[in-house]
Design a protein that fits this description.
5 helices
């Protein structure tokens, strides 16, 4: 959940995507992109920095919700299933491969490994 909160905070700070968010605020965050019409396939011109700013910010609440779900599973079951942990690791590894100097490398992969090790220990103890 902390990773999701950090995404939202970092996205609006100067030096990250603060300039883009200041620009978004000028339209009250309404219609900040033409969506699919911005893709070159449809004859548009995508503003990659604004696109990245939006998705970096928007990933925050999604990551937060995922964290809440994992937390609830761990509290009710004692661990997440190895399948969830392995999928989390796989998605994180693909992201880390594509963007090596990122939170996927330094935060998500270790979180996934921790979930997997914990799930295997709990599973071995409780059968």
């Amino acid at each position: 959940m902390a990773t999701g909160v950090a995404h939202v905070i970092l996205a609006i700070l100067p030096g990250f995507f603060g300039d883009q968010f200041l620009n978004f605020s000028r339209s009250w965050f309404f219609n900040i992109s033409r969506g699919a019409a911005d893709f070159s396939f449809f004859g548009g011109a995508l503003n990659y920095v604004e696109f990245a700013a939006f998705w970096f910010f928007y990933a925050g609440p999604i990551i937060f919700l995922y964290g809440q779900a994992i937390d609830r599973i761990e509290k009710s079951e004692g661990y997440v299933s190895p399948t969830i942990a392995k999928t989390f690791i796989a998605v994180s590894v693909v992201g880390a491969y594509m963007v090596p100097l990122s939170g996927m490398t330094f935060i998500l992969i270790p979180q996934g490994i921790y979930m997997y090790v914990r799930s295997m220990k709990r599973r071995n103890i409780h059968g």
